[in-house]
Amino acid sequence: MHAMKGPGVKEQIAGVVDPSEPEWVRELAVGLHSDIIGHPVCAFAKVTSTMDVAKQLANAGAPEGLTVIAGEQTEGRGRMGRKWVSTGDKGLYLSVILRPSASCQDTDRIALFAGVAIAEALEVLGIKGTRLKWPNDVLIGKKKIAGVLIEPRTGAKGVEFVLLGLGINVAQTESDWDPGVAQIATSCLLEGIDVSNRVVALTVLHRLDHWYADEDGKGERELLSAWTARGEPDKKEQADDADD
User: Fold this and answer.
1) 10-243: which CATH architecture?
2) pTM
3) DSSP code of 83?
4) 148-207: per-residue pLDDT in tens?
C-alpha cells in the first residue's frame, strides 16, 4: 500500500479541508491483504466528501483500487443526495475507484458485493444480526450501521470508472447524533464491539477485494446466496430472478 505523497499534492485537491493524514491510516499497510482495493490509499483528516475527492482523482487518471479515506466529512452524502452524518473519527468514510472490465460493469452487482462485503466484515468483527436492505443499507435489526453509494462515470465507450463509497458507523454513541438519527442508527460500539477504524478498514477492504476480484463471475451464485441470506424479501426475489 502506498499513500499519495509530495509537497503540496494533497493540498491541491478540491474538497480537501484538512490534508493531514489520520494517524491510524499510517498503520493500514500492516495487515492489509488485498490485490486491488486499497492500492494506493489517499488519506485526509477532513474533506467535503470522499466521493468528491475520488471523482477528481479518477478524472485525473488515478488507478483502479485507489481508496480515499477521511477522518471526517463536512458534506458526506448518501443515495439521492441525502446527507450522511459523518462524526469526526468515529466512523469509517471511504471511496474506492473501480475501473471494471466490460463483463463487470453492472452497478447492481457492485451494490450486491459491496453490501455483502460490509456485512461479512462486521460479522468477522463479532457483530450479529446483519441485514441488507436494497439498494444501499446495512442494518442491525431495524437500525442502519452502514451505507453504500455507487456513482458510475460513462463516456463514449461506456463506463469509464465507478466510484464506490462506504460509510460505516464505528464508535458513535447515541449522543453523537440528533435524536431523530439516533432512533434509526447504530454503530459497532453500540452493538457491543469496541473496535478501531483501522481494524474495520482492513476487514472491509479485504472482503471488497475478494468479491471484486471475481470479474469472470465464477462466484456469482455464491454472491447471490450471500446476499439473499441477509436480504429483505423483495430483493431476495430479484436476486433469485437474476440467478435464473
Assistant:
1) 2-Layer Sandwich (3.30)
2) 0.87
3) B
4) 999 999 887 778 999 999 999 999 999 999 999 999 999 999 999 999 999 999 999 999
